[in-house]
Each structure stands twice: as C-alpha cells, then as structure tokens.
Write a structure and sequence with these properties.
five-stranded mixed β-sheet, 12 strands, 37% helix, binds zinc ion
C-alpha cells in the first residue's frame, strides 16, 4: 500500500485562522524508512499555525504498514471496538498471510506496538506480562492504582524486560523490570488460551482489557484442572 495524503482544513484554536495542512492517512515504512522515525517521534502529527505559530498534535486515523516486519497498525483515536474488518483492505491483502493487524486508540499504544513488533515480540504475550507485573507493582505500592503501562525496555543479553507504569491519580511513572521467563510463561498461556484470537480476521485491539480476559480464562482452567484432580 502506498502512502496516502489528504489536505485538511484546520482552524487554529488560538487565533481562529484557517489553514490547509497535509496529513498522512496511510504510511508505508517498507518503502519510506524515514517515515518510521517521523511517526515514532510524533513529528508526523505536529501542526503549527502559519498565522500565530501555535503548535498542536493532530489526532486522526492513520494506517501504518511495515511489510518487512509483517505488521499493520491502525491508529484510530479513541476507538473502543475490539475488532475492525475492512473488506477492501482484507481483499487487497488476502495474499499476505501472517501479518499482525492491530487497532490502537492512542499515540502511546501506537508507539509501543511499533517498538515491540519491530523487536520481534508477541504483543499478546507482552500485554499479558504487563498485566501480571502491574498487579505485582500495585501490591508493592500498597494497593495503588496501576492502570496504564508501556514496554520501555527489552534486553535479551541481560534477560530482562521493563515496563513503565503510571501510578495513582498523579500518574507518577514507575519502572519495573522482570526476567524474560515471565514473558515465556505468558507466551505459553497465549498459545493455550488465545489461539482463537490469533486467527481472527481484520484489525483487533490487544490491550489490558483483552489481557484481563485471557488471564481470567487461564485461572478458570487451572481451577477446573484442580477439581478434576480431586474427582479422579
Ligand atoms: Zn493561530
């Protein structure tokens, strides 16, 4: 898929001046590598009013293609759907198999997905690991609310991965590292309990809510196994 640009009229929230801006609705980093850094740094979404110089981050849907690393991410601000099937897109790419397709609702999740797919990680296992570690962090901090977090470090040599969480209403950043074994364990759980999701068509949202559901299925299965052992 080539790059797609559209012209959009933007009204400045400060001076009300209306200007035209060129925005990308689709980027292909396989053919244009420089685009990747522009996306990751947020530069692609920066807007500056030509009249008064006011700067803002624009939010609009962007489809990100990385065919070399076999993933596509659809950033759709604030989307709350789990699955998005675009028939036109599906048909166009029906010959391309094993491409991970995700929808994300915000820029931070967008950046995280790019980072972990480029690193060759399984985002489902990462999400589950992140959830498990967030529960540990919450306990460590006396039951503090730990709702949001991102993979911020991955190092195979030192056998560690790290997540940055945002804690409490002040959203204080808190970094927690863990050994990669927990990621391997998460991968095993994914292979047992998320096979169905791996085969889903279209773009899907793999986030904390999704991971909570998988963790629930895993714990329930463990309880059933325990009961079965008692019956035998
Ligand atoms: Zn302005």
């Amino acid at each position: 898929m080539p790059e797609k640009k559209v012209n959009k009229a933007i009204v400045c929230p400060i001076c009300s001046n209306m200007s035209k801006a060129q925005i990308y609705t689709s980027v292909n980093v396989t053919v244009n590598r420089a685009m990747r850094d522009k996306v990751a740094s947020g530069e692609l979404f920066e807007w500056r009013c030509p009249e008064c110089g006011h700067k803002a981050m624009l939010t609009y849907p962007v489809l990100y293609n990385d065919m070399k690393n076999r993933f596509m991410i659809y950033l759709i601000p604030k989307i709350d759907r789990f699955q998005l099937c675009d028939n036109e897109l599906e048909e166009k790419y029906s010959n391309l198999r094993n491409i991970s397709k995700r929808i994300v609702p915000d820029f931070n999740s967008f950046k995280e997905k790019i980072f972990l797919f480029e690193t060759g990680l399984d985002d489902m296992a990462v999400e589950l690991t992140k959830l498990a570690i967030s529960q540990t962090v919450s306990k460590k901090l006396g039951g503090a609310e730990v709702s949001e977090g991102y993979l911020s470090m991955y190092d195979r040599e030192t056998n560690t991965m790290g997540f940055t969480y945002f804690v409490g209403s002040e959203r204080k950043p808190y970094v927690q590292t863990a050994r990669l074994e927990i990621y391997s364990k998460s991968k095993d759980i994914i292979n047992r309990f998320a096979l169905k999701d791996k085969k889903l068509k279209g773009f899907i949202k793999i986030d904390r809510e999704w991971a909570e559901n998988i963790l629930y299925r895993y714990k329930r299965a463990k309880q059933i196994e325990k009961l079965n052992r008692l019956i035998k």
